[in-house]
Amino acid sequence: MRDLTKGNIIKVMFFFSLPILLGNVFQQAYNLADIIIVGKKLGDMSLSAVGSTASVVSLLFNIINGLCTGFAIPVSRHYGSGDQDKMRKNIAGMITFSGVTTAILIVICTIFLNPLLTAINTPKEIFDEAGRYLSIVVFGLVVTTIYNLEANMLRAVGNSVVPLIILIISALLNVGLDLLFLYVFEMGVEGAALATVIAQFVSASICFVYLIKKCPFLRPVLSDFRFQGGIIKPLLGAGLGMALMYSIVDIGSIVLQNGVNGFGPEIITAHTAARKLFGFSIMPFSAISATLVTFVSQNYGACKFDRIKTGIKYGIMIEWIWSTAAVIVVYLLSDKLPLLIVSGENSFITGTVAEYLRINVPFYYALAVLLSLRCSLQGLGNSVFPIVASIIEMLWKIITVVFVIPSYGYFGVCISEPIIWVTSGILVTIITIKMLKKVC
User: Fold this and answer.
1) Buried b (16+ CB within 10 A) or exposed e, 365-395
2) Interval 203-249: pLDDT, tens
3) Does residue 428 fall inside a structural domain?
4) Is the domain of 290 the same as that of 367?
5) In Å, what is the CA distance from 424 to each residue of 52, 220, 380, 388?
6) How confident is the model at residue 64 (pLDDT cuts 50, 70, 90)?
7) Position 409 in a domain
8) I want to staple 356 with a disulfide (CB 3.0 to 4.6 A). Which of 15, 148, 274, 415 is the partner?
9) Whole-model pTM?
């Protein structure tokens, strides 16, 4: 376990965030391998069936991930203050409310599976295959929730290494099962979905054994499940707040993708490639932001407010250093970077990818501030404004689809997110400064 309330701040943040960063890199690499396996073995139609559900699957996973990440905030705070009784009661609440939420999601998705696929414009020729894939993923949300609960419990008490090791095991197992189910047993897209569920089940089982053997202080007893108002309100506020923040951003991205789809196959291909590169390039932001949630929560519980201010400054400083490196790389290699994802046969596609990167990357400084401060506010117990900022982002993406894209074409897509990063970054900075003055 790592106590983030003591020691050199940069060193503490670095060693906590590094496993998260490596986990993100490994997850991205696995996702790419999964797509390649499905596409090579099953063909374009099956790949389209899996891809057509990606927005729904991402939304479901982000709801669960956001919920568990948010629930871990009070756990981290009480760990920082040394109150293990309240910490265990909050863990009991994590287990209960995550279970209820997951059950509701499974029931809703099962009942409305076909209407859901219709709503996201799933083509008729892949409708049934997409439905079979999604139904297995939906039932697998049980083990997805269990693993996220366990991983976030460990991160809440400063352990980000074990979740990384288990994630690596899961990813390797998933790829191995993909090859087994698709190439040996020829199970189709159902095999790909089942491979993911089994790999997550193994991850959850390993994490459970580790928690039982190595972290008995995190294990709640029966009396901890007798909830009090003082426990439920902050726990639900943090959990639902983070889940809403994650899901609202996802919904906005789905809306924006619908606008992109209207430009035709070449733009869709270019935008997909650009977003893949974007996802890889902002992984350090995600790692630092996740670190700040735990760092701020623990130090808030320990009443070390000056340490909180310094940690936030260091986090943004590290992200700005990365932003500078990203700008230099993009402007020196913007013509070469698209070739990492797409072939160089179509100069229009590679040129569009390069245009997207050249427009977006210089605004990473604003994105760094937005992500860092939004997560810091969650760590300070303010779950309202991060949700408001996410709603503003979603509404702007809707405005982009309705008004900006018809006037400016794909350039409107490219400038959409930088505009909201700057606007929301300014707002979240003002709110954070005011809240820090209030609590300090």
Assistant:
1) bbbbbbbbbbbbbbbbbbbebbbebbbbbbe
2) 999 999 999 988 888 888 888 888 776 778 888 887 887 788 778 77
3) yes
4) yes
5) 30, 39, 18, 10
6) very high
7) yes
8) 274
9) 0.75
